[in-house]
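During the no-cost extension, the postdoctoral fellow (Dr. R.K.) reprocessed legacy sequence entries with the updated structure-token encoder. One reprocessed record is reproduced below for audit purposes.
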Amino acid sequence: MTKELILEFSDNDLVPFLFGEYNDHLSYLEKKLDIHISDRGNLLRVSGYEKPINKAKTVLETLYNRLKDEERHNITRADIDGELRFLSSGKAKSSSKNDTNQIVIKTKNKTIVPRSPNQEKYLKLINKHDMVFGLGPAGTGKTYLSVAAGVDMYLQGTVEKLIFTRPAVEAGENLGFLPGDMKEKIDPYLRPIYDALHDMLPWDFLMKKMEIGEIEIAPLAFMRGRTLARSFVILDEAQNTTTAQMKMFLTRMGEASHMVITGDATQTDLPAHVKSGLSEAIDILDGVKDIGFITFEGKDVIRHNLVRKIISAYEKNNK
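Re-encoded structure tokens follow.
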């Protein structure tokens, strides 16, 4: 049996951001939920089966309240997908603007919120534990969210330095044939971290902090012999560490530091005879108190919908 709802959004300045250019967001919701939405100014008439139109109501109200709480208004289809993902899991977020349980990270450039229950759990683990392992396929936000959490702690003064590192293991290419000096050879491997930082911090601010050493991006080999105190440290692409490299990295942890280790144990670029340090660390440290573990799944992928389908197809084939 079909039903109809009337929704009203009082702030006319926010309505264009909520509805999207040429009502693109409303059209996207119609397609995703198989409902019909018609608009007249700031009023929406939503019709369809009861469950889908209630989902649409929750999504629109949640995103509207987020817009009211942000200085920079930017709602995308990915935000809609994120809210639908929470609803599908049965763990919908409150639409209340004043909900203190919501995980919200405000950087200098943008506001970041989790787009799946596992992303929310990941950020809560980082807040709770000094060491967290974020595991799973590409596109689930492991690196991006850990960078956001680190930037948040740095801006609040919880840590004094941000250190980002990853092993420079060649994924089918030869590092020696890349042009330039060592830094220029290594930079492509660290590009996802640079991209995340540029997304969250103004360019001049980032360059200044890198010049004085408060933000550091370096290959894993540069961590040897150091004690990383009062720092937020991320080891990205950890599946490409050897056993010795992983042990070396984990034992660099110093006073008042936080470490996040991210990777996908199924995607190692190490030679076939070399065991991944990430896989071994998971086995050895499983059950150790005060270390957080989370494993993302294909349904957590927040890139293009096709990426999620591709990962699911590969997982099915592997099984």
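The longest strand covers residues 2-8. Residues 50-68 form the longest helix (19 residues). The remaining legacy entries will be reprocessed before the final report is submitted.
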